[in-house]
Amino acid sequence: MTLRRLLHRLTAAAALGLMLGAAPASAQTAAPAEAAAVQPPASSDRARMNQRVFDHVWNEVRRAYYDPALHGVDWEAARSTWRPLALAARDDRSLYRALRGMLDLLDDDHAGAQPPAVARRQDRLRERRAGIGVTLRPDPSDEDRYLIERVREDSPAAEAGIAPGWRLLIDEDAAWSPERDVVEGEPVTLTLIDAAGAARSLVVSPRILEPRPAFTADRSRPGVVVLTIEGFEAGLGRWLGDELAGIDPETDVVLDLRGNSGGLLLEADAVLSCFLPASRPWATRTTRSGRRIVMKTSGGCGALDGPVANDVAVLVDEQSRSAAELTPAALQEARRAVVVGAPTAGAVLISQETRLPDGGRLTLSRADFVTSGGVRLEKRGVTPDVRAEASAQERRSGRDPAMEAAVAVLAGPRIDRAETTAPAL
Hints:
Layout: H1 3-14, H2 44-64, H3 75-88, H4 92-103, E1 112-114, H5 116-123, E2 129-131, E3 134-138, E4 145-151, H6 156-159, E5 167-169, E6 188-193, E7 199-204, E8 207-209, E9 215-218, E10 224-229, H7 236-245, E11 252-256, H8 265-273, E12 281-287, E13 292-296, E14 312-316, H9 323-333, E15 338-341, E16 350-355, E17 361-371, E18 386-387, H10 392-397, H11 401-410, H12 417-420
Parallel strand pairs: 10-11, 11-14, 14-15, 15-18
Antiparallel strand pairs: 1-17, 2-8, 3-4, 4-5, 5-6, 6-7, 9-10, 12-13, 12-17, 16-17
Helix pairs in contact: 2-3, 3-4, 7-8, 8-9
């Protein structure tokens, strides 16, 4: 099947079955098991800071969350349940576990609280700093586990044999948890579950790691440029426009958004402006007050005077979130790109971050979001046009089936730009 026919067929299919939303959270929540346990008292200074942090989070949700009804959650009852645990917390791990427990009632992947150590690491993401070289996210099935999403190849973690898909166990006896800083030369002991389900205890010594660029271009494949975007960070649109301005119109473009957790909405608009005409509607956001705002491409993309005509494939996976979902969704609906890979995370509400009194960070959804086609991606995600996922054996061997599929699809007949670019409305 030619790419043109594939895009026509998939566009027609995308117009069906668009009504799917997240299930509302229960209006009543059972008290956590820890609430019945006797909590040792925190120091007075610690308790005061715990109170400030908890009250900030609780009030911010009540005041600014995009759904005034809070999905039916009894927020006063939530306060009564979780505040005593937060105030009694003796460390950041216990405090932020209580905060996450309360925020989880909203059933919203964008509602989260990050302790100060995590916020500091994120603030220094593009700087030289001590690290062990893993990217973690909480395991939704077990609050005492973290899933290892990525392992940096030149890192202490890689040298210790740690691999993506392993799980980090955090219990009361854990020597280190993500709520703590890592210091160069001070070893940390990690309790891990490997891919075979076996428990391992490894000692890893953090060292200074050079920063990794947020955006990279690979021109090693003839007739193809692969633009890998790790996050929608400041400067993305300018960088992408500069990269695209220098390529031949016959060169195929692969946007690799796998493992991309999202970022700035302004940069997502800039990416779309590289491929879609100015003022083209691509989504609608609805604020807490119910006001609906149509989002349109601004037309600004680095050195480009207008969108490029190159054929495009977008790579996504289950770790593509937020802006890394709404961007392929908009290009897919416009029939401007073929999406390849695995279904995305379905975490697409428009959020905003605020600092907490202890230096931590609160992330909270401030607006609902649907695509220009009326699809609510939250809890649903983007379904690829072409499914391609790597098995564990393929990952170990270095094969990349999704990349191979994207290059193969783009190698077909050229796309008719008159048919695949919708006019501005």
